[in-house]
Write a structure and sequence with these properties.
Distance between the termini of chain A: 29 Å
Largest interface: A-B, 40 and 33 residues
Radius of gyration of chain A: 21 Å
Shape of chain A: globular
Oligomer: heterodimer
Strand content of chain A: under 5%
Order of helices and strands of chain A: HHHHHHHH
Distance between the termini of chain B: 64 Å
Largest sheet of chain B: none
Number of helices of chain B: 4
Strand content of chain B: under 5%
Shape of chain B: elongated
Number of helices of chain A: 8
Order of helices and strands of chain B: HHHH
Number of strands of chain A: 0
Chain lengths: 183, 80
């Protein structure tokens, strides 16, 4: 097993979008998701000496993030005093009904859809990781964040034709990568 | 008639709804006789669809930048 290195200098560039996307599908609030990602980086920095190099940096960060997300839900639950969920059988007839029967909802297909979307999100992030940093940045800003061409050009100090060349390369690489790993 | 690289450029712009009508007409004519560009257009459309489908999200650039400055300060303290 390869021994993974840890280098916090690159964390935000490399992993913040991945962690954010992971969080937003689970807490669905922009501000909270950003805070949780930031907390994760800080916690990771503090416990860097515990990193054994058995997993990749990203996996390790995700494991910290997972705990942060659980903590977040614990906190809001205890605030409301709603942490407990009670299941009572209402009458003697329904006694013996299993919990599963109560929670199952055959019309709810969103769980599966969501799962598939999360996997697709992972595939996209894995492909984005393989792009050169600049291509990935431009592609994300244009495609995911939906910024105007002009805004991106100003921010990154490039010309419009420059931008389209980068976009073209990124799109070709992304298509190839997703073709191999997803379609 | 437009060359292939221009056709691909228009195709890229179309993915972001930035191509003009005239450009799109020129692209359509090009695609009628160019198999390579037809293939590129097909995979390009597929990529657009899948990106939309994934509902993938990224952090705001400004937020990321401010997070980075905060983190770098801490990193410095951590090293000291």
């Amino acid at each position: 097993m390869p021994n993974h290195q840890i280098n916090p200098n690159k964390w935000i560039d490399l992993y913040s979008d991945y962690l954010y996307n992971y969080t937003i599908t689970r807490v669905s609030d922009k501000e909270i998701a950003q805070d949780l990602v930031q907390d994760t980086f800080l916690a990771a920095l503090k416990s860097m000496k515990n990193f054994k190099g058995e997993a990749s940096e990203r996996t390790w960060l995700i494991s910290i993030l997972k705990r942060k997300i659980i903590d977040h839900y614990r906190k809001i639950n205890s605030n409301k005093g709603k942490a407990e969920v009670r299941i009572n059988y209402n009458d003697s007839e329904s006694e013996g009904d299993w919990l599963e029967e109560r929670v199952s909802d055959p019309y709810d297909k969103t769980a599966e859809d969501k799962l598939q979307n999360n996997e697709l999100g992972d595939a996209i992030h894995n492909c984005l990781d393989k792009l050169p940093q600049k291509q990935a940045d431009v592609f994300k800003m244009k495609t995911i964040l939906g910024y105007e061409t002009e805004v991106i050009c100003n921010e990154l100090n490039i010309t419009a034709s420059n931008l389209w060349v980068i976009i073209h390369r990124a799109r070709t690489a992304m298509s190839d990568c997703l073709e191999k790993n997803w379609f | 008639m437009i060359p292939c690289d221009e056709a691909n450029h228009v195709c890229d712009k179309t993915q972001y709804k930035e191509a003009t009508l005239w450009e799109k007409i020129k692209l359509t004519i090009h695609l009628a006789y160019c198999r390579a560009c037809r293939n590129y257009t097909k995979s390009n459309r597929k990529l657009t669809a899948v990106m939309k489908d994934s509902k993938i999200q990224c952090m705001d650039e400004s937020k990321k930048a401010s997070m980075k400055t905060d983190f770098e300060k801490l990193l410095q303290e951590h090293k000291d």
